[in-house]
Amino acid sequence: MCVDPLQGDFPEVIEEYLEHGVIKCVAFNHRGSLLAAGCADGSCVIWDFETRGIAKELRDTDCAAAITSVSWSKYGHRLLVSAADKSLTLWDVSTGEKIARTTLQQTPLHARLNPGLTSPSLCLACPLSSAPMIVDFEIGCTTLLPVSVPEMPDVLAPQQRSKCAESGPPFSPAAACFNKCGDLVYVGNAKGEILIVDYKSVRVLALVPVSGGSAVKNIVFSRNGQYLLTNSHDRTIRIYENLLPAKNVLSSLEGLGKDVDGVDGVEKLKDVGSKCLTLFREFQDLVTKMHWKAPCFSGDGEWVVGGSACKGEHKIYIWDRAGHLVKILEGPKEALIDLAWHPVHPVIVSVSLTGLVYIWAKDYTENWSAFAPDFKELEENEEYVEREDEFDLMPETGKVKASGVNEDEEVDIETVEKDAFSDSDMSVEELRYLPAEPIPDTNEEQDEVKLIEARISESPASEEAGQNGHVADHTPSPLGEEMGETRGKRKRKPSEKAMELQAEKAKSSKASGRTVREKSRAVGDQEIDDSVNGDDDEVDVDAYF
Fold this sequence. Notes:
Layout (H helix, E strand, L loop, with lengths): L12 E6 L4 E6 L5 E6 L3 E6 L4 E7 L7 E6 L5 E6 L3 E6 L4 E7 L4 E6 L8 E6 L5 E4 L4 E4 L15 E3 L12 E4 L6 E4 L4 E6 L4 E7 L6 E6 L5 E6 L4 E6 L6 H11 L5 H10 L2 E7 L8 E6 L5 E6 L6 E6 L4 E6 L5 E6 L6 E5 L4 E5 L81 H15 L2 H8 L10 H7 L11 H38 L12
Antiparallel strand pairs: 1-29, 2-3, 3-4, 4-5, 6-7, 7-8, 8-9, 10-11, 11-12, 12-13, 13-14, 15-16, 16-17, 17-18, 19-20, 20-21, 21-22, 23-24, 24-25, 25-26, 27-28, 28-29
């Protein structure tokens, strides 16, 4: 049952949509000022989300396969792209240059950069039929992470490092993600377990069983790192509360392991896991029993969102953390393949199967009292009686009253408040915006412009202008160059301004032709009058007619 959210801060309607080829996946940067999208042709496009203009396009000549995921670095300087051709590519966003590229043995479904590094060259990849792995671009090494715990005590998954990780036997793909600081990896396996792994030593430090024992398809942390979300094959989204501290996580886990006595092996890991994560809430549709697609948190962690995995429908479900379903967003009759919540604003972007990016925003209503607190909306006219001192220079009601503020108290103007988006290193300059690149029109639009100019040149006004000595200038005009002299990426119809300019050009040509014709006739009449009335010259009047 959907409850009344009392004007909750979440999206309600489709504001607009973005189009650039066939989009497959999207991701916001840390502040939400830039939106990266992976396309089916192997390219990536970055939009300035404030202006909705394309700021950068990244295209790898070595990749023509569809993009499976995109991931930003902490400060937005790098972008990690995984593709269906089993490749991982690291890009420099500012320059648009390729930093590194590697090829795996299996197709990576998801890949994420380490959020704890300033300039990360370390990423976590989740291949299709292989265990999650750590990929180091600097040394070209991959490290397989354990996806299960052996039953024998004190025997954990051995460390496997190689230049190119070999694929194991086929099994369901495992989901994995970094924690907020990037020093631990949380792995969800096909047995319905969450493993907390130290990826540096490749050791399982804790284990948390998922109720129901169903395979975990998605796992993701909230922005503040306080909650962990899992999406399982039993069609249930679960929220866990993170009990570990924000810093010194490894030492805390080792301390928890030392405090557990009397048990070994898996039971010890489960005991430690119970002190790391605790089940907070479960979300599911008891009526339709649908599977969920791309579930995630809102920017502030107050809302949980999940897309319907049913074919032919574009539905987005929004819950609050208390477990109440507050909104169902219904879009076009197109399947949903990916979605992301804006880090700051109540905005959701969703990707449809046709490759369009829909932007969902809040449906705001005009409220004039927000600009003037004393403004009052009236249903009908009312008689107003002015105050006696309303128009006085110093009204009694406007005199300053004595306040309890100590005017002698010193005001601190040097302390800078901590930026909520910069967690630790304030010395690193964050990439927030990119200069937008103008997009020229396509060849089709050039043909449309030439067709319009040809029609104008063939019009009666142009013929009259040509007969009267006015030859049309067919050299490319600045307007024509602006409308498209090079290949473009986005289709646009000729603007109304261009059409108006063409119409004015036609009118001016017609007017100039009429003026020349009238001027010639006036000159001829004047010559006839002068000849008829002249005293010396005899003129044959019939010659003029």
